[in-house]
Amino acid sequence: MPETIELTSPSGTVKIRPDQKLSLFTTFRIGGPAQFMARVTDESQAEAALEWAEQMDLPVTSIGGGSNLLVDDAGIQGLVLAVRTTGKDAETRVRVEEDDHQVRIWVPAQMPISRLGHLSAERGWTGLVWCAGLPGVVGGAIVNNAGAHGGEMIDQLETIDVIRLADRKIESWPAEKLNAAYRYTVLKHAPRPRDVVVLGATFVLPRGDADELVKQAKEFSAWRKQAQPTGACAGSVFTNPDGSYAGYLIDKAGLKGTTVGGVKISELHGNFMVNSGEATAEDVRQMIALIQDEVYRQFEVRLVPEIEQVGGK
Ligand SMILES: Cc1cc2nc3c(=O)[nH]c(=O)nc-3n(C[C@H](O)[C@H](O)[C@H](O)COP(=O)(O)OP(=O)(O)OC[C@H]3O[C@@H](n4cnc5c(N)ncnc54)[C@H](O)[C@@H]3O)c2cc1C
To answer: Taken in order 305, 67, 24, 40, is the CA torsion positive or negative?
Structure first.
């Protein structure tokens, strides 16, 4: 097996590790190996890793917390760039400009989204409290336009910083360029390999009452614990169709508890699939097809996956 390659960057060494199990980097705990993997936390590390990938003529796949991904059993060819780190590391890089009415904050892409929700509540900033308890990191949440409790990433987003793969130039994009809609951005729907990696984001947040916001953040976190399963999963498997809820339709179709191989539809929430420990990406794909067919047969609604399939030969 090839050995770990070490690249130097102004902010530290970037390790390119071969043959890394992606099941360890996804909340579904599913996925074959990354041919190569690098974890990066800032633009200089991203630049070093991307330059190496270009020299090696390898495609690049960026991931964040891996909480919305179904990685193929064959893994991902090329370089997987994981833009993720612990909450504490990321928090030290948050930049804040405030006045009496609002704050403008710059947040690195690897900041855990839940921590951002709690931090903004503690500081008395409104608009991001819904993030409390949400898995994943800011970069992935922006790409997905993640949302909950009536809020979504695009609401408070002013700009994003990206590094272009082609020439490793850093650009600032106005939020409008994402063309965001319900769980949609142009970045999420761009064909792979994609042109840019998200490095950070600026949000504008009105001031609010910290005590009230902290209470709300705790309630949102607690709600997740009682309404969603705790096992290995990737959140909602399908987006909600117009005027209904995917989980409701799956429940009404009598599918809760159904198993395919190592994957089971949660008894708690019909739109969640839980990995028993042995599930493969193929089990999940079969389960998706089974649910789509049965829900369509009973209700003439075609459910569309929210989780994203990546990798394969
Ligand atoms: C238990 C559970 C509950 C969930 N509840 C919700 C919910 O209420 N609402 C909701 O919207 N989602 C929910 N999700 C899904 C998921 O948490 C969110 O979509 C999350 O924001 C994805 O972030 P991530 O960092 O894990 O992204 P990943 O899954 O790692 O990646 C998502 C997408 O972003 C791309 N990407 C990631 N980082 C970068 C980067 N730096 N640059 C460029 N592209 C990048 C990836 O290629 C992929 O296309 C849930 C998931 C779980 C497991």
So the answer is: positive
